[in-house]
Amino acid sequence: PLQVELTLLRMEAHASQNTPEDHLVAFYKTFDEIVHERFDGMILTGAPVETMDFERVDYWHELSELFEYARTNVYSSMFICWGAQAALHYYYDIPKHPLKSKVFGVFEHKVVRPLNPLMRGFDEIFYAPHSRHTTIKKEDVKKVPEVRILAESKEVGLHILATDNGRQIFILGHQEYDKETLYGEYKRDLDKGLPIEVPKHYFRDDDPEKEILFRWRSHASLLFTNWLNYYVYQETPYDLEEL
Q1: Among candidates 160, 159, 169, 146, which has minimal Cα distance to 235?
Q2: What is the layout of strands, in order, in the sheet containing 39-44?
Q3: pTM higher than 0.90 for the full model?
Q4: Residues with catalytic roles
């Protein structure tokens, strides 16, 4: 029922390999075009650069400007996967750590703070996809009192983190993935001859010849609905000058 007006933003310093430039020019804005605007919410997506040092990413300087801009021009920001790792590094100096093998599949998670508005309506146990080569360690987050752990997994660690006021939300998995996204990543790497394991707990009996078990959609919808409702809509001041 909420009316959402969406603005798509791209990093001007980065040349996209998968999206035609004319499409980006037609539908996306650059940071310079929105720098004098204010927004109720922002989602920063992941990117396949997680094995690189943050400062070596070609658009890190531009992204840092966006992080600073969001402090005073965006009420609630949601950072996803590498976007979450980058934001935790920038705002709180929380490091990322390489994994011995890629976390790849759909994993069981437990809600740690059920009274947080973002977790309202969640079952105690829920599923979420992950696809990453790096991780954030719990002991590093514990050193930063501003950031709370909302949901985690025994098998793959932290998943949902947030500040108490909901101004910053960090999603280390991929709750937004469609049913066949992991399959597409798996097939892509197979076709390229890259080393890739079958995504865990994704196909029935972990057999890629069998059906996909799509069991995270309802909680994904709930996560984004809660964010839009409680933080982007209810908590955002009517006059964004109050930020």
Answers
A1: 169
A2: 39-44, 74-80, 168-171, 157-163, 147-153, 97-111, 125-135
A3: yes
A4: 81, 174, 176
